[in-house]
Amino acid sequence: MATVFKIKRKGGVRYGVDYYLPDGNRKKKIIGPKWYEADEYRKQIETAIREDRLGVLIAKEITFSKFAEQYLSYKKTQTTAKTFSTNYYYIDRILVPFFGRHYLHRLDIQLIDQFMTESLKRGVSPLTVNGYLRILSAMLNKAVEWQYRARNVVAGIKRLKAPEKEARFLTHNEAARLLEAVRYTRLWVTVSTGLFSGLRKGELLNLKWPDINFDLNYIRVINRPEEGFQTKNYRNRTVGLHPELKKVLLWWRKTSATRVRHHKSQSEYVVTYQGEPVSSVERALKTAYLRAELSSERPFHTLRHSFGGFLAMAGVGLYEIAKIMGHTYEDVTKLYAHLQPEHLLRQVEKIPPIMLRPRSQNVPKAKEDPSKPVEIIRVRKERRESRNRTQVLDSSDETDEIYTGFPSWTSRVRSPSPAPKFSMGYTSSV
User: Fold this and answer.
1) What's phi and psi for 208, nearest 5 deg?
2) What is the pTM assigned to this prediction?
């Protein structure tokens, strides 16, 4: 049941005990440098196992299909309705038909690889397969937490390489065309709020009039778990109220009285249809995009991406964009650091020029024609005279004495006296 083992280390020999718990988990423990101490501990462990005094809870075995039912019941109370519907579809329609009959502790890497291969053969994209693995990994982690006999084999599997999707956004001209297409309609407030505040679809559809402060010009995005609404990262945030969006919201609130009298229903939600809150605007938005001659792919999220792109091109820092849009900094870096390549290329021109110290240019020497010896002599003479003039100018501040090249003793040699004049001893007389 338990054995003593020996290991060699730099500090000397150490002894330990190797044993298995009743639930099948293997344990190893180092005791010390003396063998009899490790053997004594081995006897204690064997006695404790026989008498069931270790207090070890033997993990329960369960099939994947049975655990999936418990996991979905748990997720229904912990996530939003949209997230739960996605999890329910992936688990009930995809994972359970493949793994349902297997016990959790029987799942291995080979079985996971087979599941990934069959999914790709059915035409499922690599990005979607990675989504399957993400949910399966979360299920196995929760099974370990609930003390079922399981382990997360998905954690050691490398995810598939999926091509990165380009974040689509509208230019200023395209945004103007879209706003013109929905002007003075019920979609005007939806498009304007998406373009000028960057709210997610769920945040916009659950926006209420008390959340908008027209005096201080801001919008509050608030979690309402009691109403079944939570933001993506479960955090409240504040977004500034753009002047153009403020005009549209004031017009929408002013005309709400007419809608209330007509439909005899008053709602505190901002986005309504016939006086009642709406759950989706995708179909109407696609129609508006087509009317503006724009692509209708992911119409609502395009508004949010456009808002982030406008902020990035206006020079707002990525950290500030993350705070405004409720993103993590890494997500914003990936989404908006590469938007508008031509705009980013123009930003390089803002780097100031690096000034270099001016210096004289090297003038190439005139080539000498060997066929004209007289001309060569004249050019060399001019160069020599030019160098001599330069040396004289450089030495103008020195002494005027010129070295003659003679030894110093020559200064003591007397110059010869002039020849004496001799007289004839008489003077001439007249």
Assistant:
1) -115, 160
2) 0.56
